[in-house]
Amino acid sequence: MVEISLRPARLDDIPALERLIARSARLLSAADYSEAQVEGALRGAFGVDRQLLADATYFVCERAGELLACGGWSFRATLFGGDARPGRDDSRLDPASEPARIRAFFVAPEFARCGLGSRLLMHCETEAQARGFRRCALMSTLPGVRLYRRHGYVAAEPIEYPLAAGLTIRFVPMEKNLPTPAAPAAHAAPIHGRL
């Protein structure tokens, strides 16, 4: 059996990422969104963000060269969306006062609910925490809410994000406090002499 590995996404992964994102969105969102909503979202709200790849904060789960899942985190202000989404903000966040962004999680439909999303999410949270972030925030799709809620994310009021042709799509802002890193254990001073 070939092991599933987790690695940073590369620029040469972009065509495969685009295919994975489209398949995941079309098949796994069908119970929550109309076909028109999904197609509209694939033109900006869903998609590859090259800034994440450049920052080395976007990851893939891969088996024998096939991408099975993708997702990342960011220390920049943009909360969601691919390269084509307008209104992007690549300014850096302050880890002491602002949450890291959890970004663009998609899983191949045949690998849904196999733990790949959870694996990616825990990896991203660990990396964000190592960079000093105390919270994570994200903009979830309706099917994604189930994953994030299981991992302790709390939902705010849903928003209706505008798409082309007068359509909107419902997303759910969510946030989570990261656990405080454990302090290094104090080492007992050696005892010298004889009792």
Short description:
With 195 residues, the protein is α+β, with helices and mostly antiparallel strands. The chain has five helices and eight strands.
Structural class: alpha+beta
Distance between the termini: 58 Å
The third-level CATH topology of the domain at 5-82 and 89-134 is Aminopeptidase
Alpha-carbon Rg, integer = 19 Å
Number of continuous helical runs: 5
Order of helices and strands: EHHHEEEHEHEEE
Q: CATH homologous superfamily of the domain at 5-82 and 89-134?
A: Gcn5-related N-acetyltransferase (GNAT)
How much helical structure, as a percent, in the residues?
25-40%
Average pLDDT figure: 91
Taken from the alpha-carbon principal axes, the silhouette is: globular
The count of β-strands is 8
The assigned CATH architecture of the domain at 5-82 and 89-134 is: 3-Layer(aba) Sandwich
Walkthrough of the structure:
The chain is globular and about 45 Å long. The longest helix is centred in the first third of the chain and has 15 residues, at 14-28. The N and C termini lie far apart (58 Å). It has a domain at 5-82 and 89-134: Gcn5-related N-acetyltransferase (GNAT) (Aminopeptidase), CATH 3.40.630. Strands 1, 2, 3, 4, 5, 6, 7 and 8 form an 8-stranded mixed sheet that branches. The chain has 195 residues and is α+β, with helices and mostly antiparallel strands. Helix 4 (116-130) links the parallel strand 4 (100-107) and strand 5. The protein has 5 helices and 8 strands.
